[in-house]
Structure formats: C-alpha cells, structure tokens
Amino acid sequence: MMSTVQPTFPKGFLWGGATAANQLEGGYDQGGKGLSTSDMLTAGTHTTSRKITTALDPTLNYPSHEAIDYYHRYKEDIALFGEMGFNVFRMSIAWSRIFPNGDDLEPSEEGLLFYDQVFAELKKNNIEPLVTISHYEAPFALAQKYNGWSDRRVIDCYTRYCETLFTRYKDTVKYWLTFNEINILTLPFGTFLAGAMIPKGNGELVDTSQDDPQARYQALHHQFVASAKAVKLGHQINPDFKIGCMIAYMCSYPLTSNPEDVILAQQKDNLTNFLCSDVQVRGAYPGFAKRYFADQGIKLVMEPEDEQILKEGCVDYYTFSYYSSTCVSADPDQEQVGGNLSMGLKNPYLKASDWGWQIDPQGLRWSLNNIYNRYQIPLMLVENGLGAVDEVEANGSIHDDYRIEYLKQHVIAMQEAIADGVDLIGYTPWGCIDLVSAGTGEMKKRYGFIYVDKDNEGKGTLDRSRKDSFFWYQKVIESNGAVLE
To answer: Can you give the pTM of this predicted structure?
Structure first.
C-alpha cells in the first residue's frame, strides 16, 4: 500500500546503538569480576556450535574473556558513538562485575566504579544510557550452586543486584530493561544463554536432546517474578525511571493460506512472542499459555503472592529485537532457514544474509503494528542489523553498502509504522561496534558501524576504524531520519 502521508520521526526520537557487556567488555578476570555463564562459552563457527564448559580449559578459546576490550577502551568507543551523534546507547551491566558470586551480600565497589566512569563518559558525549540489567549472562556461581533460575532463591539475588544499581544510578540512568530477550526460555536451547541452568548432554549450546520444559518454564516464571519486583522497586527508588521488557520478536508468516498454516503461525506468535510480554505488560499469564502448560504437562510452582507481584510490576514500555522473518507450515517437508534464535521455513519472496537470515523490512512494519495494536504502550526497537563479512580495502576503507541498504529499508519501515500510528520512541541497531557473536562466538559475523581489528581466533590489533555505514548513520541521526541516501 502506498503511503498517503509523509512519514517522519518524532522530535526527541532516540537514535543510538546496542551492545552487551559479555560481547564487548572483556576484562573477565579484572576489577574484581567473577566468572559469568558467558565466560564458560567457547568459540564456535558458522557451522559448529559453541561449547559450554563447567571449568575453564586453557587450551580453548573463550571469546568473552577479551571480547573487544571495551573495558580498557570505553572512552575511545564512546567518543566514536558521540561522533556519530548517538543520543542513546544500549548497554548492559555484567552482574558478576557487581556481585562476583551472585549471592554476595555486598557489591563490589570496584565494579560499580567502572560503570560510574562509563556513565560519566556517556554524559560527556550527551548520550543517554539504556541499561539492560541481565543480558545473556549471570554469575556462574549461581548456575553451580542453585542451577540458576530454576531455583527461586535466585530472585532475591537478582533483586539485591537491582536495588544496588537503582540506588547507585538513580540520578544517572533513566531507561532500564530487566532481561534481554526473556522469551528465549520458551525455546529448548534457551537455558544457558538466559543464565537459567547448566544443561545436561554433550555441552553444545544448541543441544536440545536433554531439554526439560518443566524446569525451563519454571525458570522463566522466576524471571517474571524477579522482573516485576524490579519494576516496583525501581519506581519506589525513582518514580521517573522508565523500566521495560525486551523480547526477541520472531515474525512468522503462514506459508500458505491453508487454515492449518494460519493457526500454526498464530500459535507461534502467541507462544514465542506474546506469552512473555503479556505477563510483563499486562501482569498475568494469558489463556493460551495456561492451555499450553496443560497440554504439555507443565505444572508451574507458584507462591500465593506471585499473581499480585506480577500485577504490580508491569513494565512502562516494550522493547524488542527484529532481524528477519520466517514462515511456518503444517507440511513437514518444507525447506528450513535460520533466524535470530529460531528456525523457520524459507519464504520464496525474500533474499537472505550470509548467515541464512531472510531479509524482510516489511516484516518490521507488520511486527510494529502487531505489537502496538496489542499493548498501546511506547515501543523501542533495540536490536536490528545485518551480520556480514566485511572486507578492509588496501587504504583501510570498508565499503559496507549491503549494511546501509539493509538498515535504510528498516528505517523506512519504521517511518511507515509511525505513520500508521505506532508510538515508536527509539532505535538502537545491534552491534554498533563489531563485537563477539552470541550465537557463534565469531568476530567474522560483523554488525558494526565501527570495525574492530580482530579475527575468529582472537588475533588482531583491536584498532577501531569507521566503515561507510558510520558516516551514513551519522547523517541519518543528524537529519532525524530524513536523509537516508
């Protein structure tokens, strides 16, 4: 459908980029930091899975240990973000940098001081921090001692951590997210990435042969309770806090008009996307979740006060990641393709990235409308981007026109969604500086506007350089989305 109005971004729109501590900080054993679950993940490749080790093996490559050394280079990196014109920067705090074992009674002052310095540098560059409290990591000691989020006692560890952050940064940080892509726990391989529990089996990150849905959804329930408690606590400490949820939005179309395909697409949308956000935005489990639990024989253990806690801890805004779309069908013989966290069926109308993720900007417009029509609270797209292999020219330049085209089309889709009436308040493309891939542990799979000289084996100078997309995004921000060429 042709646009009948000139799409524009609202004044004060938040433009920036997104990262996660475990994928860029490094300094895994510095500043009093304890081991995190992500510190136990080895490197993988495009075709081989990352391995989970229960003890560090000096013969293996653990990408998070150095990552891109932001721990020592944050001033340089934040200056580059400022040069691009960011007015927001999505980052996470490493829980084990604040509470090395997770259940410590007192926080590490050295860890808090590090983030004091990061926030001061952001302020100097007029950049608002958007802080994810738990982004695909937890103190590894919690996984060992309690089997992570499967144990209700971890809720108190998390809320103690939140209280520390909210109190320390009550005048520094306005925007918070409780858990990154919390809905990963609706997927069989989500347990370790979510810091939920140590999986059994062969140690492969994506191994689903030992999946325990009962334990997985119990862990998810504990995260819901923890998130709701954090929201209530944060608002008590500073009523001006804006505390949101974060969902990995998995856009799925029915492959055909067969009613079975249409119902399957709706069921996937409900279970993988809306189960978690219904609890966090509306404060209660939806009916379809109760039916799913009954059908699967899942019996959640809930305390009498849990329903009230969920009602009192609804989030202020909804954030999500969007990279691609897939299709679903009742026909088991259709060709499968990859995507962010999930597999789906190939859409014959779409092209795909180097990693097989289908490129679908129109799916973003559809998703924004679908989400906003359901909740009607402010939305923010906090992850979006193209993972690709970038080539450095002899003169040091990096011509990533494929990334510019991907982002341009998604910015246009956002403009159209805003014209549709969606209250979209911000955009932080993923991996604004090259960092370690969460799924594969690679450096080769790059998303950034800023190139980092490091390869999959961990070799390189770590020098930073600007890609063509750096200057393109600079113009987009300066024009508030009006200049996209």
So the answer is: 0.96
